[in-house]
Amino acid sequence: MNRFEKHPRLFLGLFLLLLLPLLDLAAGVSYRLVTGHTWHQRLIGTVLDQNDYRVSHPLYHHGLIPRISAHSHWGSVRYLIQTNSLGFKDASTRDVPLEYDGYRMVFIGDSFTEGLGIPYQETFVGLADAWLRPRGVDVLNAGVATYAPMIHYRRVRHLLEVEGLRFDELVVFLDLSDALDHQTKYAWDAQKEAVVWRLGGRVSPGEPARVRLPESWRERWIWGNLLLLEQIRYWIDFRQRPLWQEYERYGNTSEARLDRPAAIWTTRETDYGQPGLESMTRFMDLLAGVLRERGIRLTVAVYPWPDQIIGEELDSLHVRHWQAWSARQGADFIDLFPNFIQKRTREETLALLDMLFFVGDIHWTAAGHRVVANGLLDYLKKRAAAGDFQAGTQRHSGGATTSR
Asked: Phi-psi category of 87—alpha, beta or left, where left has phi over 0 and alpha has psi -120 to 50?
């Protein structure tokens, strides 16, 4: 009896182990011959790093590349990112008509409004869109990471004056970090009427954290033409990626989410809080003027960071300032602090933060977006009952709406 007959399963296993890479290589080469690109190129071409779909702009600093449809990642969270013809995050790569027969509502804000790590349909804007669209309301999300009132003003002007977009209402989500951004990130070039980076330079593509092909041309050719094994290698690489800015290296909520410089200015003396708030107010004044001239309704919304939730900061400076500002400007005001802040023990609050925010991060999970959407929908349902969503409807009552 020969060795094969003694150990048939062992030899069969070895044979399959040797055959699999050859079959995989044949499948990969066939795929390349049919499609014109390798499976590796498909992987890195459809999974983008955060900066891969962002683009510099000479007037409003940066935005998103139009008509993107790919997967991106926020740490180890993989999600679908799609942008429409205007470069807004959307449910598809649709062409957005500049004019719309019904009521059109545009949201603008920073990374919270863009919805980092979350597909559009699960963001608070997407959830509001799902409720509003059957009622004839077109929803657009102009929110982009690190936007602030200075950019809101310039971006909206560009939409109206250059791109020719027509809409009935702008909903501005003001973030606590906007004050710090106005003092450290952005400056206004009065001559060019443009937002510039305080430190010089512009948004750059950065160094993508993608799986790399080996240096040897032989290894590079083999891996580049594999299919299943390259997919496995990619999955392993993806799971090892840390969260952007390495937030996930923190092991607990309090260490990673609290005492953030961008949020503490509401309760502590800082050198950027008050001047940053004044700068925000200046550009919100300008934005309100632009909208008023065109009869566009303005709604302002504010929401807490983990610091405010832990501190049960319902009567926050952020709330008081923008509620008073909205009343002066005849804008509606949505206070989402009560939607997050209730009487709880510290342990209960920390557990809640773990559910509503990404691990070690201050951005919302899908559950966090649902909390915001619920507060927003309470406000929108009252508006719908009053028949507010008619094209050309104008109302400047200066009333403040608190979502609870």
From this structure: left
The residues, ordered by sequence, that sit 6+ positions from 371 with a Cβ below 8 Å of its Cβ are 336, 339, 340, 356, 364
Give the CB-side neighbour count of residue 182, counting CA atoms within 13 A: 26
Structural domains for the chain: 10-44+215-245 (no CATH), 54-202+246-402 (3.40.50.1110)
Kindly report the pTM of this predicted structure. 0.78
What single-letter DSSP state applies at residue 190?
T
Question: Dihedrals φ, ψ of 319, to 5°?
Answer: -70, -50
Helices first, then strands: H and E counts in the chain: 16, 13
Per-position DSSP letters for 24-76, written without gaps between them = HHHHHHHHHHHHSS-HHHHHHHHEE-GGGGEEEETTTEEEE-TT-EEEEEETT
Q: Give mean pLDDT in consecutive 10-residue pieces for the chain, a chain of 404 residues.
A: 61 70 78 70 58 86 92 80 97 97 97 96 98 97 97 98 98 97 93 83 33 48 68 58 42 62 90 95 98 98 95 95 98 98 90 88 94 98 92 50 50
Query: DSSP state, 357?
Result: B
